[in-house]
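hey
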């Protein structure tokens, strides 16, 4: 039986964060929590996608073309938002002005160092263009492909854990352990504080979403749409059969392979990790909409 261990004393969280990287941020801006809601989604999802798509042999990374027509694209923007940010859990009063997106990297690096205390941030995240990268990552999850050049995290090491049986390549159950550290970090995050911060710093996310090509769209609507899409991921019984038609692994079942990048992420993480991620996503959705989903 798989289980998620406490995050305390994890050796991956014992590296010292370079103080030179965060000193300027402390002077320039207090520790906001604005990016955290998106960071949690990225940890819950993007790392899994990158890990599964490690090549079986050395090959230069390929940046896919624009998403195919079958991708789940945002609907036409309504005149008013479906999920107005004002309906979210009320945020605490905050008098400090928000930075511009172009000036937000330094304070957000400091923020991430405080949220993910001791985590090797330079090894995990792209620490430039943080807000645009996170917004693009969320927008890409319901699509069948993602733009590698805009991902918010660096590739993680290692390969997919597989085994063979009766001539089939199967995803090993212990492959789920690859994501254990990130799921523990996600579980540890205080959802109420994440939502409070997201509401306070929502203008940064909204502006980045408009700049991404949706001048009349609402990022909170897209965030809720993506969460609902991920929550609709089917439970796939183990073992999951894989195919390797070229270099990268794929699901052997075409019905699974044609699903979105985000849903395939959750299916690869294993049922225990998937349950933890979905529970956090439900809690986040409740906070950013002021609604509670039925179980």
């Amino acid at each position: 039986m798989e289980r998620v261990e406490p995050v305390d004393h994890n050796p991956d969280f014992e590296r010292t964060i370079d103080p030179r990287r965060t000193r300027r941020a402390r002077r320039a801006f207090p520790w906001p929590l604005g990016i955290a809601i998106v960071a949690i989604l990225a940890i819950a999802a993007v790392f899994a996608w990158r890990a599964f798509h490690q090549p079986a042999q050395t090959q230069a990374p390929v940046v896919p073309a624009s998403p195919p027509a079958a991708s789940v694209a945002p609907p036409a923007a309504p005149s008013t938002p479906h999920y107005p940010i004002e309906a979210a859990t009320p945020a605490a009063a905050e008098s400090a002005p928000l930075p511009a997106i172009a000036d937000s990297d330094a304070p957000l690096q400091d923020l991430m160092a405080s949220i993910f205390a001791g985590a090797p941030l330079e090894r995990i995240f792209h620490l430039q263009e943080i807000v645009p990268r996170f917004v693009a990552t969320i927008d890409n999850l319901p699509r069948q492909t993602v733009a590698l050049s805009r991902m918010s995290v660096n590739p993680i090491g290692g390969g997919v854990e597989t085994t063979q049986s009766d001539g089939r390549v199967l995803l090993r159950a212990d492959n789920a352990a690859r994501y254990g550290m990130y799921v523990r970090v996600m579980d540890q995050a205080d959802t109420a504080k994440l939502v409070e911060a997201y509401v306070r710093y929502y203008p940064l996310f909204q502006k980045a979403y408009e700049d991404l090509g949706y001048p009349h769209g609402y990022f909170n609507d897209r965030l809720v749409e993506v969460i609902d899409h991920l929550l609709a991921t089917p439970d796939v019984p183990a073992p999951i059969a894989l195919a390797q038609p070229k270099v990268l692994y794929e699901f052997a079942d075409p019905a699974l392979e044609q699903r979105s990048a985000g849903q395939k992420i959750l299916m690869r993480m294993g049922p225990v990790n998937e349950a933890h991620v979905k529970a956090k996503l439900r809690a986040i959705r409740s906070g950013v909409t002021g609604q509670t989903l039925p179980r």
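Residues 11-158+177-233+270-289 form one domain. Residues 1-37, 44-51, 54-70 have pLDDT under 50 and may be disordered.
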